[in-house]
């Protein structure tokens, strides 16, 4: 019942905490899905989203426990509260899924994304790109006389802002990892 | 003791250890090692079907009529793809089946080998879970886990894909008890606070109704028994979905009949007007709810379901209880009894008075006049002449299916097998084979339409080969009856492609298969013909020629709520509006 945030053995809450009225406004939620790292598990999760018509804004996945073969999938999705609840319940039904955590409702979270940003320019533009990278605490991880590759870490919004600033300064291409997230505190 | 054996032998050993007594299947190149092992033993019977789709539906019939998982064995490529319809059918109706497929050897996977298909990829979205086993060491454990997943929680179909080299290689066999405990353990006990809340609602409800579904059947016979006790003790009316028929007996005092699109008037009206709806193992399917924004507007709704994703999926629930129907009903009865078995008796009398007035409409009435058999009459006579028998009924999909649900009465669970969620034409003929295999001495009847029946008629060969005395009761209107009915109501009576020009002579067809054929086109001969079918010791195709343009009523037109039912032909003009026409 991890998908429903009910502590094991708890009788305080009903089995399904969906009493509040559903609204029609769309919300953005970050979900952490703990899965067995077995073949096809990512296809099951993605197939669920496409088959039932849910949105994926960002998705990251990697094995986080090599001994236990457990992977953590972080999904950023958007939908009405009812759809979000459906997504969590549907994810919870997948056999190799051990737990679904809605980080957006479970308290404060740290969300980070990493991006590599290639910028090609010369003269003032090149100097300005480097100055802005410094302000954003982006590091140059590759450099030629005509280009930089910056590595930037932060929230998706911060990366969006940095990429927008690089556009007039000779932006060539961007690679982003998607969001990784953890809840704050213990 | 650890036992070394080939993967093929492991498959058969694992099936034996899981208590499997019959397998439905069809051999082919990629499963030959397993078929060799089947040849070398006598514990498991193998039923050779004529098409892999038939094997899966037969396994569904077996599973639904016994409560045990049905088992299918087919080859790679086309064997697996032919199983897809049956898998999807079992997924939508929550039927536990285990499908074993052969696969090309591991070193050839991905090379577009002969009869290679990405079976786990293709079946990922039509199984509860599936596995490709690439290591013989993991084979027995995976098969045991497959049975566990198929049976646990909300049951469903699973598939294990076994490459041919894995079948040949040696490995260690692990017995079911020794397999690592699966983390997949769905919650079965309901939340006590929610159960108490439901008891409080039961104590004060003025117009309550039980709305039950296939979950009660899946939970096992004990759940049906508890449901009966609860219904009798409270005196509340009860209706059921197509999938739940038999959980409460049709002869019971509180029975309102089936609800939904072709459900009974009193059942649908009571659903619309109730003030407490207790959903027990049903899922608010669109065939049940009709128009969502007008669905039972005045009621408090409780929902007992083992699948959390069923709750609040389409209908807002006031009292949600996640758990197995049997466990929850047991706790519910305990709490309700300990609090003094209270109900609002005075209000209930008024509620039943209201229900009785709806019953007076007698929505299933029909007139058998003249020399043409009405389908309703045929099923009424079938009911009358077979109801005392140890009887199992399955159906195909269409008008005949709805008439069977309306005019046949089911007294016990597991006696009624039909394709509800997916609506698979061609389900019934092979399903009857699976049911008869499980219950060799019982009367097994497949109520069919001639069009559905033709979709898997090749399985008559299976019935004859295995001496399964299945009775194929075909209501033959030479039409795709339900399609024709919708074209009449929705598409200006333009009957596009909905009749059959060149039907076979079903009596000669029966004889060609080595079965018995009976034709009846006269209401006066019907009883004798049905008796002849029942008394014949062998498979029968009964060609019952019925009224060609009969429509199935009552009917909630698509896009309408429960209280806007059509009762008969008189009031069907423009019954379905433009918004309803886009719905299915």
UniProtKB/TrEMBL annotation, chain A:
Chain ranges of the ACT domain: 30-105
GO molecular function, one term: acetolactate synthase regulator activity
Keyword presence, Amino-acid biosynthesis: yes
Source organism, top-level taxon: Bacteria
Gene3D superfamilies listed in its UniProt record: 3.30.70.260, ACT-like. Chain A, domain 2 (3.30.70.1150)
Pathway assigned in UniProt: Amino-acid biosynthesis; L-isoleucine biosynthesis; L-isoleucine from 2-oxobutanoate: step 1/4; Amino-acid biosynthesis; L-valine biosynthesis; L-valine from pyruvate: step 1/4
Pfam families linked: ACT_AHAS_ss, ALS_ss_C
SUPFAM superfamilies: ACT-like
Gene Ontology biological-process entries: isoleucine biosynthetic process; L-valine biosynthetic process
Subunit structure comment from the entry: Dimer of large and small chains.
PANTHER family: ACETOLACTATE SYNTHASE SMALL SUBUNIT, ACETOLACTATE SYNTHASE SMALL SUBUNIT 1, CHLOROPLASTIC
Protein name from the UniProt record: Acetolactate synthase small subunit
Organism whose genome encodes this protein: Thalassovita gelatinovora (Thalassobius gelatinovorus)
Name of the gene: ilvH
TrEMBL record, chain B:
Keyword Disulfide bond: no
UniProt domain Thiamine pyrophosphate enzyme N-terminal TPP-binding: residue ranges: 5-120
GO biological process: isoleucine biosynthetic process; L-valine biosynthetic process
Enzyme class: transferase
Details of cofactor binding: Binds 1 thiamine pyrophosphate per subunit. Binds 1 Mg(2+) ion per subunit.
InterPro entries associated with the record: Acetolactate_synth_lsu, AHAS_TPP, DHS-like_NAD/FAD-binding_dom, THDP-binding, Thiamin_PyroP_enz_cen_dom, Thiamin_PyroP_enz_TPP-bd_dom, TPP_enz, TPP_enzyme_TPP-bd
Its EC number(s): 2.2.1.6
Domain Thiamine pyrophosphate enzyme TPP-binding intervals: 397-544
Domain Thiamine pyrophosphate enzyme central: 197-332
Alphabetical keyword list: Amino-acid biosynthesis, Branched-chain amino acid biosynthesis, Magnesium, Metal-binding, Thiamine pyrophosphate, Transferase
Any Gene Ontology CC annotation: acetolactate synthase complex
GO molecular function, one term: flavin adenine dinucleotide binding
Pathway: Amino-acid biosynthesis; L-valine biosynthesis; L-valine from pyruvate: step 1/4; Amino-acid biosynthesis; L-isoleucine biosynthesis; L-isoleucine from 2-oxobutanoate: step 1/4
Pfam entry (one): TPP_enzyme_N
Cofactor(s) this protein requires: thiamine diphosphate; Mg(2+)
Reactions catalysed: 2 pyruvate + H(+) = (2S)-2-acetolactate + CO2
Family per similarity comment: Belongs to the TPP enzyme family.
Record protein name field: Acetolactate synthase
Organismal lineage: Bacteria, Pseudomonadati, Pseudomonadota, Alphaproteobacteria, Rhodobacterales
Gene this protein is translated from: ilvI
């Amino acid at each position: 019942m991890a998908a429903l945030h009910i502590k094991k053995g708890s009788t305080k809450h009903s089995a399904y905490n969906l009493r509040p009225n559903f609204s029609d406004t769309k919300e953005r939620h970050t979900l952490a899905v703990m899965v067995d790292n077995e073949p096809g598990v990512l296809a099951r999760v993605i197939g669920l989203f496409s088959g039932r018509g849910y949105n994926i804004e960002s998705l990251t996945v990697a094995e986080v426990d090599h001994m236990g073969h457990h992977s953590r999938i972080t999904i950023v999705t958007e939908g009405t509260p009812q759809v979000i609840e459906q997504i969590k319940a549907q994810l919870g039904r997948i056999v190799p899924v051990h737990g679904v955590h809605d980080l957006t409702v479970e308290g404060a979270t740290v969300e980070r994304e990493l991006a590599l940003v290639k910028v090609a320019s010369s003269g003032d533009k090149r100097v300005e790109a480097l100055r802005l990278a410094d302000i954003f605490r982006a590091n140059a991880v590759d450099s030629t006389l005509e280009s930089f590759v910056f590595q930037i870490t932060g929230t998706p919004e911060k990366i969006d802002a940095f990429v927008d600033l690089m556009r007039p300064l000779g932006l060539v291409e961007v690679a982003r990892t998607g969001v990784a997230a953890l809840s704050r505190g213990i | 003791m650890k036992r070394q054996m080939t993967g093929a032998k492991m498959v058969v050993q694992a099936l034996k250890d899981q208590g499997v007594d019959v397998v439905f299947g069809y051999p082919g190149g990629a499963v030959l090692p397993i078929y060799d092992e089947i040849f070398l033993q006598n514990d498991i019977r193998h039923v050779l079907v004529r098409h892999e789709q038939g094997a899966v539906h037969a396994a569904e019939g077996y599973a639904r009529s016994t409560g045990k998982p049905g088992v299918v064995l087919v080859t790679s490529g086309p064997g697996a793809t032919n199983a897809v319809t049956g898998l999807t059918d079992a997924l939508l109706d929550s039927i536990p089946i285990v499908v074993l497929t052969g696969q090309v050897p591991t070193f050839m996977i991905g090379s577009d080998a002969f009869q290679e298909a990405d079976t786990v990829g293709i079946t990922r979205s039509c199984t509860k879970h599936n596995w490709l086993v690439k290591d013989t060491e993991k084979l027995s454990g995976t098969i045991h886990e497959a049975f566990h997943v198929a049976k646990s929680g909300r049951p469903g179909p699973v598939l294990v894909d076994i490459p041919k080299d894995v079948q040949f290689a040696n490995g260690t066999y692990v017995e079911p008890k020794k397999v690592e405990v699966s983390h997949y353990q769905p919650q079965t006990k309901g939340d006590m606070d929610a159960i108490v809340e439901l008891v409080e609602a039961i104590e004060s409800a003025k117009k309550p109704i039980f709305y039950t579904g296939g979950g009660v059947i899946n939970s096992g016979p004990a759940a049906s028994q508890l449901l009966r006790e609860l219904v009798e003790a409270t005196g509340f009316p009860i209706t059921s979905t197509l999938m739940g028929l038999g959980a409460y007996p049709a002869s019971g005092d509180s029975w309102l009949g089936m609800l939904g699109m072709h459900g009974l008037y009193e059942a649908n009206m009571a659903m619309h007007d109730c003030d407490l709806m207790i959903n027990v193992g049903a899922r608010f399917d669109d065939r049940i709810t009709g128009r969502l924004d007008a669905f039972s507007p005045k009621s408090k709704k409780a929902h007992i379901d083992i699948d959390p994703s069923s709750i609040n999926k389409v209908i807002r629930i006031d009292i949600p209880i996640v758990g197995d129907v049997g466990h929850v009903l047991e706790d519910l009865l305990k709490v309700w009894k300990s609090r003094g078995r209270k109900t609002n008796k005075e209000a209930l009398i008024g509620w039943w008075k209201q229900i009785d007035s709806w019953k007076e409409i007698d929505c299933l009435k029909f007139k058998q006049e003249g020399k043409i058999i009405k389908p309703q009459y045929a099923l009424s006579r079938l009911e009358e002449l077979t109801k005392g028998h140890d009887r199992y009924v399955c159906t195909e999909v269409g008008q005949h299916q709805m008439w069977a649900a309306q005019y046949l009465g089911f007294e016990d669970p597991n006696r009624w097998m039909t394709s509800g969620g997916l609506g698979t034409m061609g389900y019934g003929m092979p399903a009857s084979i699976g049911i008869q295999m499980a219950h060799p001495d019982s009367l097994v009847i497949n109520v069919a339409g001639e069009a559905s029946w033709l979709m898997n008629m090749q399985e008559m060969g299976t019935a004859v080969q295995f001496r399964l005395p299945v009775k194929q009761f075909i209501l033959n209107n030479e039409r795709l009856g339900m399609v024709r009915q919708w074209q009449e109501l929705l598409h200006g009576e333009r009957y596009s492609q909905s009749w059959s020009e060149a039907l076979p002579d079903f009596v000669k067809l029966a004889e060609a298969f080595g079965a018995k054929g009976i034709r009846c086109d006269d209401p006066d001969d019907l009883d004798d013909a049905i008796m002849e079918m029942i008394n014949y010791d062998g498979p029968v195709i009964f060609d019952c020629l019925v009224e060609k343009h009969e429509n199935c009523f009552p009917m909630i037109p698509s896009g309408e709520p429960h209280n806007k039912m059509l009762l008969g032909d008189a009031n069907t003009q423009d019954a379905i509006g433009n918004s309803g026409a886009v719905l299915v």
